[in-house]
Amino acid sequence: AVQSTEAATAVLTFAPAANGALAPGQDLVIAGTVANPTTTAIPAGTATIVLNRAAIRSRAELSSWLAPSSTTSRDSLGTEVLSAATPAVPAGSTVPMQFTVPAASINFGTRASAWGTRTLAIRIAGGGSEIGQAHSSIVWNPGTGVQQTRLGLVMPLTVPPSANGLIPSDLLASYTADGGLLSRQLDAVFDQPGIAIGIDPRVLASIRILGESTPPSAAAWLLRLKAASNDSFALGYADSDLAATSQAKATRLLTPTSFPIDPTLFPEAPRATPSGQSTGTPTPAPTDAVGAVLPDPTSLQAFTYTLPAIAWPASGSVVERDLDRFETGGLTTTILSSDNLSYTPSSAALVGRHKALVSDDGLSSYLNTAVGAPTPALWEKAMAQLSSAIAVVSLEHPAAARTLLATLGRSRPGADPRLAQTLAALAGLPWAASASLSEVSAAFITGSAALPATATVTAKPESADRIATVTTLLAAETAAGSFSSVLTDPSQITGERRLTLLALLANSWPGDDTWAAETKKYLAKSDRYVTKSVTIARSSTTVFTSRNSPLPITVTNQLPWPISVYVTVRSPSNIITIDKDRVELVVEAQ
Asked: What digits encode the pLDDT tens for the residues 195-207?
């Protein structure tokens, strides 16, 4: 869109071909676009390609180059290697451009044998002034001296946020169909050894609870997931925010307490035996076969994970005491982002007595920019940055190869349009090799030669507003849970409230404007259960005309389930005595 504000400027997006890799004898091809969001045309002019022949030695230096705080025409960018004419860019238009720097002009001189990352700039001028600069980088690869960095990746396998504790059947059918959201995620990483999958148990439970009505595509998808050779571990149910519940002082790790099972969907399941009778045969244990037995919370969420007991809180959200709470809940290893820790050169670290797998925040940022790139030009730019950053890692510590970890984002599950493309490009980088999560965590094995580094937590608590909201949600669930004893089957309330609460705590909600409205609905429904669903009807004054009289009390149940309540009557004085002062009532639904 055309921006009429005076602050609008041209946007230059350029990146080298081949993911930034350049070998001796190759021309350097740079392609991209110049976007003009203003109301004035950019005149034809000149592009100047500038190359710095000295290798970048740190990621901080690379980051400062790729994202400078400001640029001016007086910046010293390096040695000019090409000057080429550029076309005019009409107002409100974007024009593609491509430049080729001949191999002979690259000329690294005495540095030609030293592989590594070099900085690159494209400066465009027209009408007597500079239009703008684009900063990028290349990796010079003479074919010798290249040291690989091993990189493990972690991807969440989940769905977009909703207040549903279970994914509806029609959405499951859509998500697991060819080209569906869950199918795309699984297709991109299936059997790739360097990519671990964090699996949302809500997806598993939503498929299995449908029994004989499970969409065929969902049943097939689940079988394929079980056949994948990737490392795997369980996310919190609905990928719930572990750090937020910890900081809101939840008394325990939140997990589902029950599920709404429809027995008619499991016709093969054994039925309850009348009291005092025996079937003569033991009840079969739950199995994975759809429709074989009546499922329970354990069987609905069951999966053969290669890496049990892993906590993966949101990036940059943890304070030190959270690790104690995770361990109390049975999660003994935590994936932490590097910006949440003091410096550690390793992907495995001990934080006090706690095991931590360290996700490199810089590499993760470049990775997520690439997989979420909306255009080819932006993907090529992000991929060149990721490629260069991995190469710099090797030069930072040339004495030994390093193994690092990067994580894919959770704010837009399944919406990354270039996940498969990015993973394929990573696999083709000569200076990158894959590492499984099992290998990354091998330093924790007793007797391992690769001893883990030690680190301390740099506290990054979640926002006070979010913690206040989560605290209120937890209190509402507790109140509804106490009230649920009124039901013949309390799980009708406690199970639904817990599943909905976990769905509202999903890591994909932050930044979604509808979260506040959904939390208000949750609080309103919990309050309605406690204060309005079961009531004693207001009555008028009762006049007793004899020594023995009945006292009429009316109890109303607006719930869709039967309840058991006790009415207790107390006399304010000894003038009236109550023969039966505590009466049990069973009130049917509605």
From this structure: 999 999 999 999 9
